[in-house]
């Protein structure tokens, strides 16, 4: 079982996608969900958490959608993980030592043993993971993704989002009426 849920993966992909959009043309929630293959209700929960953390902002109305609330080089993977999962520990120490027959219900009281050696290793591992997540920004990932994407693919993606922009209700009804039915 993984420590981080699939929502973290979705959120990181969404954030790197948003880093490639200009603020004046934010993608709609519906378009983001469809593009990434995420159920719209699940995306809404993710976007709410990212918004509460101050990582994205939403605009309503015609042309509305989501954009990064800050520059992508200031948003770390740790910010995204904490927004989605909350700040939770990798390891929960239950002080097994207290139940050990050798200590009679009391953890050893020496200064060197206040934190169990197992817990100390797990704390160091968590510290290392958090440092690594804090060292990588959304911009760090979105730049190589953009650089490794052909101009044609970038254009197709931008065109896809332009075609899936939120349209006024009248336009959507007219489009449905004139579109061929499958």
Strands, helices and their partners?
Elements: H1 6-18, H2 29-36, H3 40-52, E1 56-59, E2 65-68, H4 77-85, H5 117-135, H6 138-147, H7 151-163, H8 169-178
Antiparallel strand pairs: 1-2
Helix pairs in contact: 1-4, 1-6, 2-3, 4-5
Task: Explain the overall architecture.
With about 180 residues, the protein is mainly α. The protein has a domain of about 120 residues: Winged helix-like DNA-binding domain superfamily/Winged helix DNA-binding domain (Arc Repressor Mutant, subunit A), CATH 1.10.10.10. The protein is built from eight helices and two strands, in the order H-H-H-E-E-H-H-H-H-H. A two-stranded antiparallel sheet has the order 1-2. A hairpin with a 5-residue loop joins strand 1 and strand 2. It is elongated, with a radius of gyration of 23 Å.
Distinctive features:
2 strands; single chain; Arc Repressor Mutant, subunit A; disordered C terminus
Task: Provide a compact summary of the structure.
This protein is mostly helical and 182 residues long.
CATH architecture of the domain at 6-88 and 137-178: Orthogonal Bundle
Point out poorly predicted stretches.
167-182
CATH topology of the domain at 6-88 and 137-178: Arc Repressor Mutant, subunit A
**For the report, how would you describe the main beta sheet?**
2 strands, antiparallel
> From the alpha-carbon coordinates, what is the Rg to the nearest angstrom?
23 Å
Distance between the termini: 41 Å
Q: Classify the beta-strand content into a percent band.
A: under 5%
* Structural class category: mainly alpha
Strand elements, count: 2
Order of helices and strands: HHHEEHHHHH
Helix content: 40-55%
Mean pLDDT: 80
Within CATH, the superfamily of the domain at 6-88 and 137-178 carries the name: Winged helix-like DNA-binding domain superfamily/Winged helix DNA-binding domain
CATH class of the domain at 6-88 and 137-178: Mainly Alpha
- The strand line-up of the biggest sheet is 1-2
Morphology: elongated
Please count the helical segments: 8
